[in-house]
Amino acid sequence: MGVLNTLIEDGVSIDELRVASRDNRLAHLLLEHALAPKGRYGIDEISRKTGVTVEDTRRWFRAIGRGASEDGTFYDDGDLDLARGLKQYRDLGLDESGIFAAARVLGRNLWTVADAADALLQERLEAARDHPEVALRYAVEVRRIADFEAQILAHLIATTLRHQLRSDAVGIARDSNMQVRGAQEIGVCFADLVGFTLLGEQVAPADLGRVAERLDGLATDLALAPVRLVKTIGDAVMLVSPDPNALAYSALDLVQAARTEGLPPLRAGIAWGTAVPSAGDWFGRPVNMASRVVAVAPSHEVVVTGEFYDELDTDEFWGEPAGSHRLKGIDAPQELFGIGRRYVA
């Protein structure tokens, strides 16, 4: 009865309760209401309080994935802050089309994050299907969990943005012949699993996690000094080394090891240039370049920039042209090369 009373207090109709009970969805319904606070504002009031026109508020909400409703008091204080965010971006003088383009990217990717979190909740809901009182106790904590997840996401976005801006600053300094403390010539490699996103739609989250963990383990084992494993980012790893030959060997070994282990196809992209270490990470043009190169590399192959290829010992490695590519965020077309070991009898 506790679950039913809670839902009735939240304004759920008898018909909704009847359907949810018939479909064994009382726990789901309870969680939906725990995660969705009652609205306080209509779209017109959001507009009045923020100074953003009704039409722009609707357009902003649609872009960021929030959705625009005309049905009474649908929105809460969080939505009010979202609309204020658009005004703050404008007050900074940022390009209007760029603001909305970034919002659309964020909106699309937030659904991916939400899907992953939902998969975890579904496991708990299935376990509590025949025990709605357990679901009631769990729902009390759900909003707190959601707020905690939001804090994590906000921190990660802010941290990543700071890192990106620092990389941009390093690039500007390099182009202006300015000296940046700690800057050094280094090779940067990104290796990622091809088809990892599609795999996530076909296997359980736990199985997907084990694939990512295995990649992290292989990279850790194969990143021998002077090569260093900087970080694992889901389905990708980042390696750096001041020794181009050592980095090339590690990348080739990692691609082959993933193949031997039966992991999804791995590919790697490597760039060379000036970067700056900070708080265990690296920033600069080669970091950005390597992350773009890996996106055009074929499965089971290592592709490098011309600058990196020029640093390699051609007695130890062969290379073949991989074409000229226009990489996202890079102005000029880049000549890339596929590389491999020379096996000397």
Automatic annotation (TrEMBL):
Matching entries from CDD domains are given as: CHD (cd07302)
UniProt-listed InterPro entries: A/G_cyclase, Ad_Cy_reg, Adenylyl/Guanylyl_Cyclase_3/4, Nucleotide_cyclase
According to the entry, every stretch annotated as the Guanylate cyclase domain falls at 187-294
Q: Name one GO molecular function term.
A: adenylate cyclase activity
| Pfam families named among the record's database cross-references | Ad_Cy_reg, Guanylate_cyc
Q: Which GO terms describe its biological process?
A: cAMP biosynthetic process; intracellular signal transduction
UniProt lists the family membership as follows: Belongs to the adenylyl cyclase class-3 family.
- Per its record, how is this protein called by name? Adenylate cyclase
**Organism (species):** Rhodococcus opacus
